TrEMBL record:
Record's subcellular location: Nucleus inner membrane
Parts of the chain that traverse the membrane: 9-29, 35-59, 66-85, 97-116, 152-170, 207-228
PANTHER family: AT07567P-RELATED (PTHR13598)
Domain of life where this protein originates: Eukaryota
Topology versus the membrane: Multi-pass membrane protein
Protein name as catalogued: Uncharacterized protein
Pfam family membership, one: NEMP
GO CC terms, sorted: nuclear inner membrane
Taxonomic source organism: Meloidogyne incognita (Southern root-knot nematode worm)
């Protein structure tokens, strides 16, 4: 019974971690797809995982032609099984074959960095928008499928979508609300608005007259001091 509780606790912690990561990815998808560091890191990971497919393609070239058809249909399951074995026995492989593992990762990391550097980060705005939307769709799928309670999943999806829309259009929403509120206030309290406007105009007129009066006094004083005996 204890190991069942440990497995359930592990699955629960894993689901919570995936949900938090998905929320972070959804909210910061716009910055992630435009980050150069994320671009190179993603390229390295794709290059390392794609290396198994490269080895499978090379192995397919070496086998006879009559055996290529079964390998064609069994190549993808074989690659998936290799991924599974590598992930499951990663610690054992890294400890027993540390030098070869580091050499393998280093070679394909350098190759992936060279390819990413040659291609460069994407600059087309439409491509970046498509990448951002794809990343957000993946994040929403992770939130939905890694929550056992559907109500919680729906609430999280609604929450992150609302926060994302609000963050992107907060200034527009504020300006729209303020403009409509001013219009509504003028319609509801037109007298008070006109009175305050008149008071403001009257106050600015008094201030202007006071400044003119000070200039006249200064001019007269200056004239008497320097020009009259």
């Amino acid at each position: 019974m204890s190991w069942e509780k440990e497995i359930k606790a592990y699955l629960l912690n894993f689901q919570v971690l995936v949900s938090i990561s998905a929320i972070f990815i959804f909210l910061y998808a716009r910055k992630l797809v435009r980050s150069v560091a994320v671009f190179y890191l993603t390229g390295i990971l794709i290059g390392i995982f794609a290396s198994f497919l490269i080895f499978g393609h090379l192995f397919q070239k070496l086998i006879p032609k009559f055996a290529r058809l079964p390998f064609l249909f069994g190549g993808w399951p074989l690659s998936a099984y290799i991924y599974y074995l590598t992930w499951r026995n990663f610690s054992i492989i890294f400890l027993e074959y540390r030098f070869y593992a580091i050499l393998y990762l280093g070679i394909f990391t350098i190759i992936s960095l060279a390819v990413c550097y040659r291609m460069g980060p994407p600059e087309d705005e439409r491509s970046l928008n498509l990448m951002e939307w794809s990343l957000q769709i993946i994040a929403l799928a992770l939130i939905y499928f890694f929550n056992q309670i559907q109500e919680v999943a729906y609430a999280l999806i609604f929450f992150v979508t609302f926060i994302s829309i609000w963050r992107r259009n907060a200034s527009k929403i504020w300006q729209f609300s303020r403009r409509n509120w001013n219009r509504l206030r003028i319609r509801i309290w037109p007298t008070a608005t006109k009175t305050s406007l008149r008071r403001g105009i009257f106050g600015r007129g008094i201030l202007a007259l006071y400044e003119i009066r000070l200039e006249i006094v200064f001019f007269i004083t200056f004239f008497i001091t320097f020009f009259l005996p």
